[in-house]
Amino acid sequence: MESVIIEIRAGVGGEEAALFARDLFRMYSKYAQKQGWGMRVLDLEESDLGGIKEVTFELKGENAYQKMKWEGGVHRVQRIPQTEKSGRIHTSTATVAVLRKPKIEDNITINPDELEIDYYKASGPGGQYVNKRMTAVRIKHLPTGIVVTCQTERSLHQNKEAALEILKAKLLEKKEMENLEKLTKERREQIGWAMRAEKIRTYNFPQDRVTDHRIKKSFFDIEEIMDGNLEPVLSALEKNLKN
After folding, report:
1. Domain closes at, from 181, 203, 218
2. 131 and 95 co-located in one domain
3. What are the Cα distances from residue 28, in Å, to 23, 39, 123, 195?
4. According to the model, what pLDDT value does residue 191 have?
5. Which pLDDT does position 197 carry in this prediction?
6. CA angle 195, 107, 242 (to 5 degrees)
């Protein structure tokens, strides 16, 4: 049983980028459901029009990390936004980060003295408070400057535990990235690590096409893919990108 933590953030494109981030979250949620995986939302910040500025969630199930590891990077959408009155196609982006949850052998430890912890009220869309008690948690890891938040659990203790899980996953990612930098350029390319700044996929709605730029392959029936039918895309990546 594997666990993976995924972050989706709206990128370039304002409200349309937030709506695209929401669509990606729905796509992964539907795919996880088809795989029989469990899902837990750890942090969520919505936009005023029902999009998602940022969401962090955990997927748990068989081969969860092995399947989802290909999704890290910049996702680009080309479509006519709901708010567009003149029918022009807009281009927006969202970033996806895929974090493997540390295992005991990864030896990721956190010194409580190196943490700066703040508590605040959980909020909903548009910044409206949905919880009058201080249950949301923001943790800053002082040595690295990494900041994590969690506000979706019901209690302060649960949010703190979830935030620490996210922090450990981010520290493991940092450790793995540092190890990767020590390798030769050729070896890094063989590993096929998806950098967050790298545009990996374009979702073109007018042409009913999803293109993965890493393997230079297009997939059609975009609505089916966005409805969670990701298996053809992930299978092609698994076949062509060796890790």
Report:
1. 181
2. no
3. 9, 10, 24, 19
4. 47
5. 61
6. 35
